[in-house]
UniProtKB/TrEMBL annotation:
Lineage: Eukaryota, Metazoa, Chordata, Craniata, Vertebrata
Organism the protein comes from: Latimeria chalumnae (Coelacanth)
Span of the signal peptide: 1-19
Alphabetized PANTHER family for the sequence: TUMOR SUSCEPTIBILITY GENE 101 PROTEIN (PTHR23306:SF17), TUMOR SUSCEPTIBILITY GENE 101 PROTEIN-RELATED (PTHR23306)
The name this protein goes by in its record: Tumor susceptibility 101
UEV domain sequence ranges: 3-146
Key words of the record: Signal
């Protein structure tokens, strides 16, 4: 992290009740998964309220049918983390679409037994990502957006033909 990013990270993490545990887990995860980056931003809850929270944004590598795909995710950490699970989303790029299923809804929210049964210290970010990799390898949460079809040629409406074009 740059000096500015580190300073911002520390500033925002200060509001976390268990900041030492949170910082340690984030450090462990970003050391292993180089595409995940800590970010601070406003998270908007279902009731419309918002709060500045830390998240891990980036991709996790998922093997599917012999190929590795980078699945874009965002893992929001509540200020009570690690005693409450992250709020997790698949964040498709402009070339991707969400594939809804039993683990991902139309908004990209991720539902996993691991999150539902979250209990510190047995549950952590690293374990969560490992579960995502396995589950998404069986049922990918995104797919490539179909290539744009060639549109039919458009015709200008010319109104009724004038008398000179009639036989």
């Amino acid at each position: 992290l740059s000096v500015i990013q580190s300073a911002l990270f520390l500033f925002f993490i200060l509001q976390y009740k268990y900041r030492d545990l949170t910082v340690r887990e984030i450090g462990n995860v970003i050391a292993q998964y180089k595409d995940l980056k800590p970010v601070t931003d406003a998270y908007v809850f279902n009731d419309g309220s918002s709060r500045e929270l830390m998240s891990l944004n980036g991709t996790v590598p998922v093997a599917y049918r012999g190929n590795t795909y980078n699945i874009p995710v965002c893992l929001w950490l509540l200020d009570t983390y690690p005693y409450n699970p992250p709020i997790c989303f698949v964040k498709p790029t402009s070339t991707m679409m969400i594939k809804t299923g039993k683990h991902v809804d139309a908004n990209g929210k991720i539902y996993l037994p691991y999150l539902h049964e979250w209990k510190h210290p047995h549950s952590d970010l690293y374990g969560l990502i490992q579960v995502m990799i396995v589950v998404f390898g069986e049922e990918p949460p995104v797919f490539s957006r179909p290539a744009a079809q060639t549109p039919y040629p458009s015709y200008q409406a010319a109104g009724p033909p004038n008398g000179s074009s009639l036989p």
